[in-house]
């Protein structure tokens, strides 16, 4: 572990798995709640019936759906703005080549969502492919939702990418206040089958390695899933891997570390959320190698799913659904297993932290994260697109774009407080519950917002209800008929939510915000090529190490991985990344 050279106490921007940027507080939450009139001077123009219907192309680098937006979200867009959304998803077809093709055509679509504010976004600005929102006073006239609820995010984009005058977009997940930005649960686990853990007498788990004997006993209690397939303590997948095995890196996030420095492209270093420390992924005693050893030990004990190397996350999700997996890296995966039928029987996954844990939290950021909303330079009717985007950044837009129109899955009671409706309990968060025709028809799941980018942090406080946007932490939700698993967990821990547990027990590292006018660096082609080559080497050997037949082979493979990586320039890449962080990030922390 190396000490950083900066002494500033502010924290680094961070990215998550999918990649987030760090956060910061903003005492002015604003509050334009009139979703159909987001423009200061839009007047009657905001009424959809007074203007012709248009179809806008939404090029989203984050979307996992392509085609016309269906269902309830489509009806909201139609009723409020008389627009149809045609979603173009590079994730589904073409990947980076699709992005390059769109750029080469000179037209990136009407509404554009970038997966990061790195090279693609900066290249699009340089090529004149994105609209400057200050042109014709567009932002002032039609962007009140953003100006009122995300002013610092607008200003940050102007300073970082617009030379202090132009605005070419706005970051996602704009936060307010202090503390963890997560809702009821954190982004990371570990979580275990709570019912089996209790049957074992809830043994104390002090270190990461202490999970293994507990998982072995749980496997012995339930050796087969409901369909008769073998159970495993841990199941991994390889399709999320980048420059290293992602799920070995996740172990570092159990200790308050994150990949990269949070601003520049993540490569081969991990940085602490609060301390002035960093690790190279191949550092002896570092958390990445700790993760590999943990999975190797699990395999030696018969706890690791033998399909881990060859399967994808979708395969593992199916195994969770069947009850084959006893350990969860991410709490949001738990819902796959925790069906109402199972939890009613007392079966379910729940948080079981280890004593040494210091879970990573991304915190709040008024500057927004690194995923960017932008408008194409050749957009049809930019004012209407700006109104739509501005609505997404308004309290009404946040509620309705996430949970459907008021009165369907959620509503407001006589005291002005939000609650989930009977329909909502069946439909949320994205279940295939039939939706009445008056709200758009189809199923609730199919009608969800398919653009796949956020605006305001759901843990922000709604200015009218006084509660967060996130329905999972409304008072009405927390007190609504908790299932036997939730009841048992609350009785055992003395708290209502996993986030509350980590905060109460000081087992959390919350990233605090900072802002720099520096743009994310673009490594040279040679540096990128070197990093890619090293990454392939690390990934190949990481998986070999996990499946090594004994410790001698494990250690031999580890030495080869380190030696070959260094031969490819590992030390040079790490030096470059640390110097970059010390120049662009650490001085502003």
Brief description of this entry?
The chain is α+β, with helices and mostly antiparallel strands. The chain has helices at 71-81, 95-105, 119-126, 138-142, 144-149, 151-161, 194-199, 211-221, 246-253, 287-300, 313-322, 334-337, 340-344, 382-392, 395-403, 422-427, 444-447, 475-478, 484-493, 498-504, 525-546, 551-567, 570-584; strands at 2-3, 54-60, 67-68, 83-89, 111-114, 170-171, 191-193, 257-259, 269-272, 277-280, 327-328, 349-351, 359-361, 372-375, 410-412, 418-420, 508-510.
Helix content: 25-40%
Largest sheet features: 6 strands, mixed
Q: What is the strand content? A: 5-15%
Q: Any idea what the shape is?
A: globular
Total strands: 17
Count helical runs.
Answer: 23
Could you characterize the architecture of this molecule?
Strands 3-4-2-5-14-6 form a 6-stranded mixed β-sheet. Strands 1-10-9-8 form a 4-stranded antiparallel β-sheet, with helices on both faces. The chain has a 3-stranded antiparallel β-sheet with strand order 11-7-12. The chain is about 35% helix and about 10% strand. The model is unreliable at about 1-45 (pLDDT under 50). The chain is globular, with a radius of gyration of 24 Å. By secondary structure, the chain is α+β, with helices and mostly antiparallel strands. A hairpin with a 5-residue loop joins strand 15 (about 410) and strand 16. It is built from 23 helices and 17 strands. The relative contact order is 0.19. The protein has helices at about 70-80, 95-105, 120-125, 140, 145-150, 150-160, 195-200, 210-220, 245-255, 285-300, 315-320, 335, 340-345, 380-390, 395-405, 420-425, 445, 475-480, 485-495, 500-505, 525-545, 550-565, 570-585; strands at about 1-5, 55-60, 65-70, 85-90, 110-115, 170, 190-195, 255-260, 270, 275-280, 325-330, 350, 360, 370-375, 410, 420, 510.
């Amino acid at each position: 572990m190396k000490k950083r050279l900066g002494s500033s106490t502010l924290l680094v921007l961070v990215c998550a798995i999918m990649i987030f940027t760090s956060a910061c507080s903003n005492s002015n939450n604003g509050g334009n709640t009139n979703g159909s009139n987001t423009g200061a001077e839009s007047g009657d123009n905001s009424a959809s019936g007074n203007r012709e219907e248009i179809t806008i192309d939404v090029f989203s680098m984050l979307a996992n759906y392509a085609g016309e937006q269906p269902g309830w979200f489509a009806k909201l867009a139609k009723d409020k703005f008389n627009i149809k959304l045609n979603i173009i998803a590079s994730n589904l077809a073409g990947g980076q080549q699709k992005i390059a093709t769109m750029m080469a055509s000179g037209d990136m679509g009407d509404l554009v969502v970038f997966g990061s504010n790195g090279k693609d976004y900066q290249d699009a600005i340089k090529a004149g492919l994105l609209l400057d929102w200050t042109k014709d006073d567009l932002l002032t006239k039609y962007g009140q939702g953003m100006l009122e609820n995300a002013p610092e995010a607008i200003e940050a984009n102007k300073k970082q990418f617009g030379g202090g005058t132009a605005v070419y977009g706005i970051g996602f997940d704009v936060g307010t206040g202090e503390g963890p930005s997560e809702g009821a649960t954190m982004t990371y686990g570990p979580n275990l089958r709570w019912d089996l853990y209790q049957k074992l007498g809830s043994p104390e788990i002090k270190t990461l390695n202490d999970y293994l004997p507990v998982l072995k006993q749980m496997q012995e209690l339930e050796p087969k899933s409901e369909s008769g397939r073998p159970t495993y303590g841990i199941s991994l997948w390889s399709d999320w891997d980048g420059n290293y095995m992602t799920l070995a890196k996740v172990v570092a996030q159990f200790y308050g570390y994150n990949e990269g420095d949070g601003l520049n492209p993540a490569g081969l270093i991990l940085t602490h959320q609060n301390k002035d420390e960093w690790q190279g992924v191949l550092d002896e005693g570092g958390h990445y190698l700790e993760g590999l050893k943990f999975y190797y030990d699990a395999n030696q004990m018969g706890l690791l799913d033998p399909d881990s190397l060859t399967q994808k996350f979708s395969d593992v999700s199916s195994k969770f659904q069947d009850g084959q997996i006893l350990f969860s890296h991410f709490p949001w995966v738990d819902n796959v297993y925790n069906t109402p039928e199972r939890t009613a029987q007392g079966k379910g996954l729940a948080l079981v932290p280890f004593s040494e844990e210091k879970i990573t939290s991304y915190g709040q950021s008024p500057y927004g994260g690194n995923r960017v909303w932008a408008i194409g330079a050749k957009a049809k009717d930019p004012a209407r697109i700006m109104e739509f985007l501005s609505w997404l950044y308004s309290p009404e837009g946040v509620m309705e774009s996430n949970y459907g129109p008021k009165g369907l899955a959620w509503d407001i009671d006589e005291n002005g407080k939000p609650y989930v409706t009977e329909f909502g309990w069946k439909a949320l968060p994205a279940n295939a519950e039939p939706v009445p025709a008056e709200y758009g028809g189809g199923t609730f799941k199919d009608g969800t917002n398919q653009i796949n980018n956020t605006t305001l942090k759901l843990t922000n406080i709604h200015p009218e209800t006084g509660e967060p946007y996130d329905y999972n932490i409304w008072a009405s939700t927390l007190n609504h008929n908790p299932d036997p698993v939730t009841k048992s967990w609350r009785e055992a821990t003395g708290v209502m939510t996993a986030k509350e547990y980590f905060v109460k027990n000081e087992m959390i590292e919350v990233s605090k915000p900072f802002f720099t006018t520096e743009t994310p660096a673009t490594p040279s082609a040679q540096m990128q090529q070197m990093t890619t080559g090293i990454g392939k080497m690390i990934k190949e050997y990481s998986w070999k190490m996990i499946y090594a037949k004994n410790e001698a082979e494990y250690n031999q493979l580890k030495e080869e991985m380190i030696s070959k990586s260094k031969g490819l320039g590992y030390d040079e890449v790490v030096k470059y990344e640390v110097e970059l962080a010390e120049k662009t990030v650490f001085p502003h922390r």
